[in-house]
Amino acid sequence: MENKEILLIGDSLTDWYFKDGLWANEMQNWYMNKATVFNRGVAGYTSRLIRELLPFSMFHNKNILFCTILLGTNDCSKKLFVDCNEFKQNLLDIVDHIHRHHPDAVILLGTPPLVNDKKLNIKPYVNKVWEISVERPFITIFDLHSIITPHDLYDYVHFSHHGSNKVFKVLQKIIMEKHPQILPKNL
How big is the chain by its Cα radius of gyration, in Å? Predict the structure, then answer.
């Protein structure tokens, strides 16, 4: 039997959280001996840069059980700015690529979390993720924008340990309630 794989796609909100006690690492611990977690988060990347990586081997996993996609915070920054309409199209391209190559994989798409930086207008990016959920009903949204508070951040953008734990708990709850077939105990 082929080993199941979990793909975590994103920016630093994914990349930096594969350390002990943080959300990506907790996902690995939860699926211990059931699936292998691949962290494909790249700090500083936008949806555009991730979309450009799709043809390369870092996304050519063989047996994806599910993937998480968490992008948008860098897209709305002045330094790395990607217009929210392009952001939406980039996410659609990413989602469609995964679905085309892995039609049975569960795709969990995150809303960008609330950021504690008044210079970042994240709300239009959150709205685009919700639009995608209507256009691609096969995906499941995990809404971090409504659950992450400024107290869950250690700086203006990145999750504190407590915030990271909230991310894991949201994902765990969604899997238990909406996708029980991918629970570790059911593999």
Answer: 15
pLDDT per residue over 72-83, tens digit each?
A: 999 999 899 999
Instruction: Flag whether the pTM goes above 0.85.
Output: yes
Please, which residues bridge with residue 159 across strands? 153
CA dihedral over 163, 63, 181, 94, signed as positive or negative: positive
CA gap 26, 20 in Å, rounded? 8
Torsion of CA 10, 15, 106, 141, to 10 degrees: -60
Report the distance separating Cα 122 and Cα 4, nearest Å: 34
Q: What is the pLDDT of residues 125-169, one digit of tens each?
A: 999 999 999 999 999 999 999 999 999 999 989 999 999 999 999
Domains recognised in the chain with CATH numbers: 4-186 (3.40.50.1110)
Among 148, 160, 76, 156, residue whose Cα is nearest residue 117 = 156
Give the whole-angstrom CA distance, residue 110 versus residue 119: 21
Closest C-alpha to 112, from 149, 66, 143: 143
The SS3 of residue 33 is coil
* Structure tokens, 77: 């920054």
